[in-house]
Amino acid sequence: MSTLLSVDKLEIRTPGRTLVSDISFSIAAGERIGLIGESGSGKSLTALAVLGLLPEAMRVGGSILLDGHQVIGARDRDLVPLRGASIAAVFQEPMTALDPLMRIGHQVGEVVRRRATRDGTACGREEVSQRVLALLERVALPEAHRIARAFPHEISGGQRQRAAIAMALACRPKLLIADEPTTALDVTTQMEILKLLEGLVRHEAMGLLFISHDLPVVASVATRALVMRHGRLIEEGPVATLFDQPSHPYTKSLVAAARAFDTALEMAP
Questions:
Q1: Are 43 and 141 in a shared domain?
Q2: Residue 9 CB: number of other CB atoms within 10 A?
Q3: Would you put residue 120 in left (φ > 0), alpha (ψ -120 to 50) or beta?
Q4: Dihedral sign of CA atoms 23, 24, 29, 32 in order
Q5: Same domain flag for 12 and 70
Q6: Within this chain, do residues 177 and 148 fall inside the same structural domain, yes or no?
Q7: 51 and 25 share one domain
Q8: Structurally, how many domains does the chain consist of?
Q9: Residue 163 included in any domain
């Protein structure tokens, strides 16, 4: 399989402080990788570095090759063509990712039009509308016509996240970054979104970088996992191995906490 993303010795600094240090990993086409760690471990900073969206005050070292293009040191205008075609992202809180003043259909439609323009093809209003409805149905949104006409505040959190996923799919990316996409959702909706993401990524043969603080959540969508703590990678390997034979004390504590939580749920009346 071809390599979509190659991160080598990534370092992220602010004046007087190193936030991420010596991070190296790669993702191949169709590969599903989980990035696990507590809040402040550097997971989201790593994702923003891959997207080329870190704040200007931060300094970045090392190498990030995305679809054959060097991200570190590149001008933003040179990275714009990669966003969407090579990589797309779904973030934790869809209410901040969606424009509150635009109907859902218009927001998904804007992505459809931009992708068509990038491909050099014409896309009329009727065709855009049909593609929008097809994308909303693809992410299992009920009553796609109603959702398309709704504003973000008029639908549920789970429906907003599905709409955000539809926008990412409209880009037709080779690599999808999902940064804590289920944290703000209830348990039932969370499992529905995880199942949806896993199925879509597998069907489209996209690479996936799934970021979470929850090892069992990562295990439901990823085949390999990287564990971060204090800005460093401390352990990596197949998800099953990390569950059954964790070697680092921190990973062992994550596994123990997950098992204790499952036991508590089983014992609950």
A1: no
A2: 11
A3: left
A4: negative
A5: yes
A6: no
A7: yes
A8: 2
A9: yes
Say if 255 falls within a structural domain: no
Q: E strand or H helix at 135, and its extent?
A: helix 125-138
Q: Which residue bears the tokens 């564990």?
A: 227
Measured in degrees and rounded to the nearest 5, phi and psi for residue 213 equal: -95, 0
- pLDDT one digit per residue (tens) for the chain, 269 residues: 689 999 999 999 999 899 999 999 999 988 999 999 888 899 999 999 999 999 989 999 999 999 999 999 999 999 998 988 899 999 887 778 899 999 999 999 999 998 888 887 878 889 999 999 999 998 989 899 999 999 999 999 889 989 999 999 888 899 999 998 887 777 788 888 888 888 888 888 889 999 998 888 888 889 999 999 999 999 999 998 888 888 999 888 888 877 775 565 455 55
Last residue of one domain, picked from the residues 115, 148, 172:
172
Q: Does 146 fall in a domain?
A: yes
Which residues form the domain of 45?
1-86+173-239
H helix count then E strand count, the chain: 12, 10
